[in-house]
User: What shape does this take?
Amino acid sequence: MADPYSLLGVSRGADEAAIKSAYRKLAKELHPDRNKDNPKAAERFSEVTGAYDLLSDKDKRARYDRGEIDAQGNPTHPFGFGNGGGGTYTRSGGPGADFEFGGGGGGDFGDIFENLFGGGRRGAGGPFGGRQAPPQRGANVAYRLAVTLVDAATLAPQRITLADGKTIDLKLPAGVETGTQMKLGGKGQPGPAGAGDAIVTIEVGAHPFYTRDGDNVRLDLPVSLNEAVAGARVKVPTVDGPVMLAVPAGARSGQTLRLKGKGFTRKEGGRGDQLVTLLIDLPADDEALKSFVESWTDSRDIRASLGV
Assistant: This one.
């Protein structure tokens, strides 16, 4: 593999953010899903993924810069006999996803004898005798799945495409949040003792007007002066669809109302609530409103509690 810095188009002094940004751009352009008829793009995707794997790992990057390992992660020392080149392919289930390729290398002198002779130093099985290492399962494959806040709150079914092109429908677990991991047994890389697992890490995205507060969902709701003063029933969006909310007469800006059971599903069962904060929205230029306030005065000392 070529120099990883050159593959990603970054300088040797590039920081982590610059490396990640360069990789994301290239991964989106070269990903096999977008280049099904271009095998060279797939090959290039594999190369830049390997380059990102090395440069995103501080230890590997330092060792590469010192000349201790090559671009594949293999030790350059003649007696290193590393295990470089292995890894895991990471794919997201949605646009704007991260892709990673993880692997490891290195080993002690026991590993060297195992690699050279297939056994230890006593018994049968090699020039030094000994038993062969037991067959290993294939490597786990890591995926990142982007999930919307609404889908996470309602546990909507998700679909993910695996590295082999197959799709799997997933059921999100109760209490799902960013960082939640799901294991798909036997969906990793094949191996002599069976396939590894697919490990799916969930990333819950931001929403234009909902925010998460534990198991609750928060929403700022604009209301008119008429609705706040006289009270009204207004339509409110929720993660389950719009509902009618009763705004009490004399409502204040900043007052919070509660919609039961419209939040996230809890791990222990049940759901959180939706907390609706009222924000009185006044028109910027309304002559009727200006005329009204000119003839009306609030006689209360509303800032007395502040000592002013």
